[in-house]
Design a protein that fits this description.
Layout: H1 3-13, H2 18-28, H3 30-33, H4 38-45, H5 53-67, H6 79-85, H7 88-95, E1 115-119, H8 126-140, H9 149-157, E2 161-168, E3 171-181, H10 183-190, E4 211-220, H11 223-239, E5 244-251, H12 254-262, E6 266-272, E7 278-285, H13 286-290, H14 293-299
Parallel strand pairs: 4-5
Antiparallel strand pairs: 1-2, 2-3, 3-4, 5-7, 6-7
Length: 308
């Protein structure tokens, strides 16, 4: 989706004239919209020009406050529809280049159109993939935050988890593991009052129950696979925005923490293990996670008009 389409759609869905929106944006954020007038807003809607990313974020925040929705005007999209609207280049910028989590396997000969992302529970070689994953999981994560292969398998089969696998012509290219837990469990894990390994499926939040998304693991052979996996993850967050309150993660990996920071999650505390390893915790509301410059650039920047 292009920014001009998003802006016009949100304005019309909220029954606002251009004059009313100009006035409301000025009242909402005078620092960004002090000089805004209907002529400029009209240029934005016609895709003659577009505001800088910070202003686009502020516009999303205005519509969040007005509608009470996490990502206004995207709440009606299914996961497949949201995935189709997310810009691959913008997602690539968010992910960056983590050598621990994204290998440099040549991808020029691989077309993204031939790569497919599936729920792991539908993956024919699920057990083999999990067997392959365990050494990676143990190498990246301190033992205090590791999960067993049996837990990964049980959680992968659970309908309220999002365990994804990416393949290319029957070859495995990567995975992404997250699950939605009840808010009180989420708080305990991020406050280091409970280990991830102590979570049971009874602690999961159902698909139509408010919960918090806990990131568990990520790995990809190359950047193309990583991009497709994260597009599917963000599409899931967008399509389920009414039932996800927060996103969180704990990690001792510097490269994982950089990706977490790019996702707009904030540091909230740490735990020092008996062998002096610092495990850091990060969390953020879904509304602030999606109202960020990285997200704007991946969902609203597929256009050629110049920034102001």
């Amino acid at each position: 989706m292009q920014f001009n389409e998003y802006l016009r759609e949100c304005r019309e869905d909220n029954g606002l004239t251009q004059e009313q929106l100009v006035h409301n944006l000025y009242s909402h954020d005078i620092a960004h919209f002090e000089a805004l007038d209907t002529g400029t807003l009209g240029k934005w809607e016609r895709s003659v020009t577009k505001p800088k990313a910070a202003k686009q974020v502020s516009i999303i925040q205005y519509f969040q406050e007005r509608t009470g929705l996490v990502l206004p005007c995207w709440d009606k999209y299914s996961s497949d529809e949201a995935a189709a609207l997310i810009c691959k280049a913008g997602m690539h910028n968010l992910i960056g280049n983590s050598k621990k989590h994204i290998y440099n396997f040549p991808s020029k000969i691989m077309s993204a159109d031939d790569m497919h992302v599936y729920p792991l529970r539908t993956f024919e070689r699920m057990d083999a993939l999990l067997e392959m994953h365990m050494p990676l999981h143990q190498n990246i994560n301190h033992e205090s935050i590791q999960l067993s292969k049996e837990q990964f398998r049980e959680w992968a089969l659970h309908p309220d988890s999002l365990f994804l696998a990416c393949e290319y012509k029957d070859s495995f290219l990567g995975f992404s593991f997250t699950t939605k837990v009840k808010p009180e469990i989420f708080d305990k894990v991020l406050n280091f009052e409970m280990r991830r390994s102590e979570i049971t499926t009874d602690d999961f939040a159902a698909h139509d129950e408010m919960g918090c998304n806990l990131m568990l693991g990520f790995f990809a052979i190359n950047e193309k696979a990583a991009t497709l996996l994260f597009i599917r993850y963000y599409a899931y967050l967008i399509s389920n925005q009414k039932y996800i309150a927060e996103i969180g993660a704990i990690s001792n990996s510097k490269e994982a923490i950089k990706l977490i920071s790019n996702m707009n999650l904030e540091y909230v505390g740490h735990h020092i293990t008996d062998d002096d390893v610092k495990i850091k915790a990060y969390r953020q509301t879904l509304s602030k996670t999606l109202a960020s410059e990285y997200v704007v650039k991946m969902i609203l920047s597929n256009q050629e008009c110049p920034e102001e």
